[in-house]
Every structure is written in C-alpha cells, then in structure tokens.
C-alpha cells in the first residue's frame, strides 16, 4: 500500500531527498572538494540521483552556492543589525556582534565555512565577498566608536583590530564540531575574553 509519505518521497527523488538535504550534501561536497572543482555530475553521483533529478530541486550549481551563501551572510548581518539596534555602548554592541558571529558560525558551520573559502571566481562569489566587506566595514565603525568611548585601546588601528577579532572567530571553522564537547555559548565567551582583553586600554577598565 502506498502512503502519502511514500508519494511525497517519490516526488523528491528515489532516495527521498528534499531540497534542504540536497543543499546540505552540496555544501559539504563544495567544502570537501572546492566549489570550482565540484561538477554537477559529481554532486548527482554523491546523492545517487540523475542530473535531471537534481535539476528538479535546483536550477544550477550556482543556485546552490547562492542559497548557501545567503544563509551564512544573512545570519551574520542579522547579528550585526541586532547589535546596532541595541541601546548600549559601542563596546557592548561589539561584544554582542562577536557573540552573534560565533553563534552564526556554530549554527551554520558548513555555509559559513563555504563563505570563508570563496575565491571570487563568479558573480555570485563576488557579490557575497562584497557583502562580507561591507559587514567588516560596519564592524570597524563599531570598533572605532568603542575607541572613542575609551573602551578599546587607540594605538591599534580599528580595521586591524576588526581583522584580528574575526580572524579568531573565523578560525573556529577549522576545528569546531557540532557533536564535540565545546558548548557554542561558552565558546563565544572564550572568544570574547581572548579577543577583547588584549584590546582594552592599558591600566583602564572596560
């Protein structure tokens, strides 16, 4: 007897993949082999689907990339927007951004990893990199404002400080595992402690 669930699975393809599952497998393969080196044929083979079945879910490899990058960028941008909307000091807003960035990275680890490994070889990648640059510029403005408050030392350039902070945040993709022992919330506090303690004014309090 065929159930409604069986019928729905058949529409999604023989193995029963839905769009989210196809996207997850695609992003994992992009991170494993590199986006440019991953062909539609290789993706279809990994999924156990024909190319035509894959195209039933997504129009192109570029669409898969675009959706994954949107997932990463929108989560990061939302954290920044939320921080900037808070009625708080610039330094407190900066802490909120860092917590949000760590939360975004740990929650959307494959998509953020893909974002961080972009080379800018396609219009989709160039657009994503431009959004990332704009994100960094906005954070740099926040660092600069925290310096003006006296909460961040001024002998380090705001842009350099931003790169150092997010260099630490971004390095998490190389070792963090969702099924590992590190709690994401505690990880955010550890990043804050290491990243910001060295940026506090010497002899001052934040």
TrEMBL record:
Family annotation (InterPro entries): Homeodomain-like_sf (IPR009057), HTH-type_TetR-like_transc_reg (IPR050109), HTH_TetR (IPR001647), KstR2_TetR_C (IPR041490), Tet_transcr_reg_TetR-rel_C_sf (IPR036271)
GO molecular function: DNA-binding transcription factor activity; transcription cis-regulatory region binding
Keywords associated with the record: Coiled coil, DNA-binding, Transcription, Transcription regulation
Domain annotation HTH tetR-type: ranges: 16-76
Segments of the chain annotated as binding DNA: 39-58
Coiled-coil regions, chain positions: 66-93
Record bears the keyword Coiled coil: yes
Stored SUPFAM superfamilies: Homeodomain-like, Tetracyclin repressor-like, C-terminal domain
UniProt keyword DNA-binding present: yes
PANTHER family attached to this UniProt entry: HTH-TYPE TRANSCRIPTIONAL REGULATOR BETI, HTH-TYPE TRANSCRIPTIONAL REGULATOR RUTR
Protein name per UniProt: DNA-binding transcriptional regulator, AcrR family
Organism encoding this protein: Microbacterium saccharophilum
């Amino acid at each position: 007897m065929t159930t409604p669930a069986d019928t729905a699975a058949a529409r999604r393809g023989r193995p029963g993949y839905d769009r989210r599952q196809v996207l997850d497998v695609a992003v994992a393969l992009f991170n494993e082999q590199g986006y440019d080196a991953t062909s539609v044929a290789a993706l279809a083979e990994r999924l156990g689907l024909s190319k035509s079945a894959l195209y039933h879910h997504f129009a192109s490899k570029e669409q898969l990339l675009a959706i994954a990058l949107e997932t990463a960028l929108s989560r990061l941008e939302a954290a920044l927007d939320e921080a900037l909307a808070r009625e708080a000091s610039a330094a407190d807003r900066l802490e909120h951004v860092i917590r949000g960035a760590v939360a975004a990275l740990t929650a959307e680890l494959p998509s953020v990893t893909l974002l961080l490994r972009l080379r800018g070889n396609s219009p989709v990648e160039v657009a994503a990199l431009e959004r990332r640059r704009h994100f960094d510029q906005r954070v740099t403005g926040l660092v600069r404002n925290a310096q003006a408050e006296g909460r961040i030392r001024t002998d380090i350039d705001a842009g350099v400080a931003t790169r150092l902070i997010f260099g630490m945040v971004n390095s998490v993709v190389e070792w963090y595992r969702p099924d590992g022992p590190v709690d994401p919330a505690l990880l955010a506090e550890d990043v804050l402690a290491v990243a910001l303690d060295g940026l506090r004014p010497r002899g001052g309090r934040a």
